Amino acid sequence: MTEDAPELRASDADRERVAEILQDALAEGRLDMEEFEERLDATYKARTYGELTPITRDLPAAAGAAPAPRVSMTKEPAGSGSWAGRIVGGEGTSTWAVAVMSGFQRRGRWTVPRRFNCFAFWGGGEIDLREANFAAGEVEINCIAIMGGMQVIVPPGVEVVVRGIGVMGGFDQREEGVPGDPGAPRVIVTGFAFWGGVGVERKLTRAERQQLKEERRQQKLDRGTSARELGQSFREDVRDAHRRMHDGHRDLMRERRDRRRDGDH
Fold first, then answer.
1. Which pTM was predicted?
2. Which of 179, 181, 159, 163 has the alpha carbon at shortest distance from 171?
3. Which of 23, 48, 138, 239 has the smallest CB count inside 10 Å?
4. What segments bear the compositional bias annotation Basic and acidic residues (predicted)?
């Protein structure tokens, strides 16, 4: 985390990254449920980096296990939008998730591993890839849903392949077959659903939706401006025509008066 600027305000995405680490720690047995709930409550109440930092600092790696991931609160520059910049290699920041009569989320800025395994029993989960990086050009999301459900959210441009099996349940096939962008990752959704379901949907991020909304608003404003300009031009044309008619009528009346005057003489 950012140690040299503890007074800086944390964002919702920062709090979500800490919450993901706590969820992993709970699943790995590093925290019991009471500790998890206390720290999760503190996470969502935190307003600064300084308040977030201690929450994950005392999660040492177990013997022989990989060290607990550290959360970087340093704001990184936004990418150029190229898919090549989002396929970063490595092992991924989270490789599995479990929900038993509860729920889990993976969203925000995280790295999707080559294979992500998740399990839900009487619970649910959300795997959001819209702002994620990818450890490889092809990743697998393996979902086991028993009387539960999961939702996989992918950004536009990503190719989706669905290979899951459902028994009194099912896997959403609607996004399959949509061609991906050149260089974009390929997401394969596999697994098994019994009395449950795995949904797959393609959505823009909140920032992209806001940008699209702003563009549409600007287009409406531009159309409104054009309509006003057209209306103004029409009104001016009508006024000019009316003025010409009035001038013509005045000239005609003057000419008639002149003729009568000449007749009298």
1. 0.53
2. 163
3. 239
4. 209-226, 248-265
